[in-house]
Prior knowledge:
- The chain has helices spanning 52-58, 79-94, 112-127, 160-170, 205-217, 248-264, and strands at 3-10, 18-25, 34-38, 63-67, 105-111, 134-140, 194-199, 222-227.
- The protein is 30% helix and 20% strand.
- By secondary structure, it is α/β, with parallel strands linked by helices.
- The longest helix has 17 residues, at 248-264.
- Strand 5 (105-111), helix 3 and strand 6 form a beta-alpha-beta unit.
- The protein is globular.
- The model has no long low-confidence stretch (mean pLDDT 93).
- The protein has an eight-stranded mixed β-sheet, sandwiched between helices.
Amino acid sequence: MMVQIKDMTFDKAGIGPVSARVFQGAEYEKSPPVLLYFHSGAFLEEGRKDSEVAETLAGRGTIVVMPDYNAPLGAVFPKPLETGFSLFSYLAKKRAGLGNRNSLLLVGGTEAGGNLAAAVALKARDHYADELDGQVLLSPLLDPFMGSASIRKAGAIGMRARWSEGWSHYLSGGVCHPYAAPCLCSRLARLAPALIVTAEDDPLLDETLSYAARLEEAGVEVKRHVLPARTGWPSVYGGTGEETSSWQDALNGRFEEFVRALGMH
């Protein structure tokens, strides 16, 4: 399916105007899912961006809204979360002409964006328990201590220094709140169902699976998927490697299964 990409500004978000890039298939169902998707970038990048993940999911009928979440208020916690949650709240109430009231509303993200999506899901649980239908966490960057075994692979793909810098910047306000590092949150019950994806050769594998296990222990419905090595998965957040990316069909398949299950509920 051909994907249409357009830039929009959501003027009525609670914090003020938020610019976003919207990815939408040229043909889609009457009530397509709407995914508020937070891009990767180690908490450091701003500006409207292209995204292979967003295009991949939009190509199968999802409306993907990718906000420039660092620009309105800054990139230090809790400002990106305030921006992200403000836009989520607006979409929950109005949909802004994207989909309709029968459309599933999801939050998702990759790497630093996965952190933000998890935080929005936590805050949504605390404020809008019935508005968020699901969360999609793609190799979320959750552990500011970078202490897992798999993170040792980060240097090989050029991400260790990048993530260290990103965490230092994001937490430079001097607070490590559970919303800033969801892996530290002790209260995970009643969160929206989660689709969690990583790969065998992903430096974020361990913290991703650890968070999935803790969600399951808290009674959250979790669909987890670990792609095999050498699919080029780390490229979704800027990791370098020699592999040709081949993760797209697997991601689409798992996402469609997840959405179908949510629709049955």
